[in-house]
Please model this.
Amino acid sequence: MYRRQGWPVTLQDGPIALRPLRLRDAPALRDTRSRNAEWLRPWEPTYPEMPLRTTGLTPYVSMLQAIRREARQGLSMPWAITWGGEFVGQLTVGAIVWGSARSAQVGYWIDNAHAGRGITPTAVALAVDHSFFQVGLHRIEANIRPENRASRRVVAKLGFRDEGVRRRQLHIDGAWRDHICYALTAEEVPHGLLRRWRDRAPSGPLPESGSDPASALGPEDPNGSGNPRDPASPHPGPH
Model:
């Protein structure tokens, strides 16, 4: 089996950990996503292999097999997010491009019951540091719907740059949705993103979205409304 440098690996900061997704995660994945179906639907890409509500394990096993196959090919790093050992969500560094680009996209979702504890930004920081300093990637993007203000606030707190809107980038919740592209390169965090996040972290819990930043969805119109450039605005959806 091909083993790429830096994968598989488990990363941890206190009670928050990222460990490689495994086939036996299928029941926890099914139960967590089914319980959070309404919380996740507005931000989830429209594709059948990642169901939100089903009683069977087969779709989840198939999805995990596909995800693990991509990881073996060096195209993604799919982690389970855990809190004190409990499965609470998923984070993937995917769409990895090697050669002269050495770039990737980060996406995540978290159980609504665990949102607001700073789990997601810590998990993103762990994944980005590993991607830059162990795997050798150079650029990480997070593409987020303008309406998903809480998720935008997470990447803003971590210091990702706003690089503008990508029109109708993904099909989500019944329509093609715009996304704001946020990005970070290795030179911008020479001492690591986790260290910078710790230095910047507020004393209280950070509001965060249950969405995948690579997703699109929102309670407003397909292209956003209000002030989509303000990452500190309160999120109109679930908390």
